[in-house]
Amino acid sequence: MRWTVEEYPRDLLELEAHFSTETACRGYLARLRWPDGFRCPRCGGGKAWPVRGVLLECAACGVQTSVTAGTIFQDTRTPLPVWFRAMWWVTTQQNGASALGLQRVSGLKSYETAWTWLHKLRRAMVRPGRDLLTGRIEVDEGYVGGPEEGLPGRLNLEKTLVVVAVQEDERGSAEFICARFRMRRPKA
Questions:
Q1: Rounded distance, CA 182 to CA 164, Å?
Q2: What backbone torsions phi and psi does residue 183 show, to the nearest 5 degrees?
Q3: Which residues of 16-55 are buried (b: 16+ CB within 10 A; e: fewer)?
Q4: CA-CA distances (angstroms) from residue 76 to 12, 106, 117, 159?
Q5: In angstroms, what CA-CA distances link 24 with 28, 78, 82?
Q6: 178 to each of 126, 133, 167, 169, 171, how far by Cα in Å?
Q7: What is the pLDDT along the chain (188 residues), one digit of tens a residue?
Q8: For residues 34 and 5, what is the distance between their CA atoms, to the nearest angstrom?
């Protein structure tokens, strides 16, 4: 099966069926990086041949590159299927991912490595250079956390304040159809 950017494994069995080998993971990354075929990062050439299994050498200028160059996988010694399992797990957790949970799921030996991976993955999920919200923006805040007995309304001890900014669409409505928003937990 050829995976595209829009396709996503629905469960762990599907993930393991399609991304259980280094070759399958590298093939997927190559299709993401070069959807129209290989392009040399130096000269733009479209023809390359494999070198030492993981590198591609441009036929035109001889520069060597890899599908993992410039990514969070660059220089990793951990097999890509382990990374893919970690990415899938982090993005499917409904209540957030923890380094301890990531360590257990991925089989990493140290908590520190799991913590580093989790932060790498979180940084990678933020699109760099994303556009600022423009036009009319609605901002509101709310508290995340369950009811606290004996504390009415906005009084709280354990809840987390979250601020949400929503950009109105061209029709002047931010209700249910807004695709652009930002959320942040204010610093204490």
A1: 6
A2: -130, 145
A3: eebbeeeebbbebbbbebeeeebebeeeebeebeeeeeee
A4: 23, 15, 11, 38
A5: 6, 15, 12
A6: 19, 11, 7, 6, 11
A7: 444 545 678 889 999 999 999 999 999 999 999 999 999 999 999 999 999 888 999 999 999 999 999 999 999 999 999 999 999 999 889 888 999 999 999 999 999 999 999 999 998 888 777 888 888 888 888 877 776 777 666 566 677 788 888 888 766 554 545 557 778 777 76
A8: 12
